[in-house]
């Protein structure tokens, strides 16, 4: 089974989260650090909100932080976010080849549905699994073993397509293959991504025959 990440792999949406974080922090007179960016960029919503609260010692409740983030991001997912080059063509090719596909994302479910509906992508996937509903970050060692159980497929029959080096490393540790997909958000970690993946591509266009 082919497992696809959403943000930074299928959709060009990692950058919008930097904008959301900057807007959220600027409202409070705060600035973003590299440490903060790295942690929230790989965390599910509840974990990122709790980290934000503790890191900046905010009075906001985690649920209020998540609601504000979601409100800031909704317009982007509904109206502005674009597909990554080659994404639809590769999904079409996989469907034509008869491959089973699932989406596995740390994106907020409501936001994910906005962009899937906008581009009519839902029909491509047999399963859509939200890391948030699983309760595990995608870099958690238990994550991809649990995903394999949920989907009812052995890990060794799965290939993950993801832009995040940590996620690809965790999938490999679980026995899956991993294709690293370049995204500018992780430009500073491209050597790491190449080292942990079965294959590395600068664009999904390279996979379209």
Please provide a written account of the structure.
The protein is an alpha/beta fold and 209 residues long. It has 10 helices and 6 strands; from the N terminus they run βαααααβαβααβαβαβ. Strands 3-2-1-4-5-6 form a 6-stranded parallel sheet. Strand 4 (159-162), helix 9 and strand 5 (177-181) form a beta-alpha-beta unit. The model has no long low-confidence stretch (mean pLDDT 94).
Percentage of residues in strands: 5-15%
CA-CA gap between termini: 19 Å
Number of strands: 6
Low-confidence stretches: none
Radius of gyration: 17 Å
How many DSSP helices? 10
The major β-sheet equals: 6 strands, parallel
Q: Compute the average pLDDT.
A: 94
Task: Lay out the secondary structure.
Elements: E1 2-4, H1 14-26, H2 34-41, H3 45-55, H4 62-80, H5 87-96, E2 101-105, H6 109-119, E3 127-130, H7 131-134, H8 143-151, E4 159-162, H9 165-173, E5 177-181, H10 190-196, E6 199-201
Parallel strand pairs: 1-2, 1-4, 2-3, 4-5, 5-6
Give keywords.
209 residues, alpha/beta, six-stranded parallel sheet
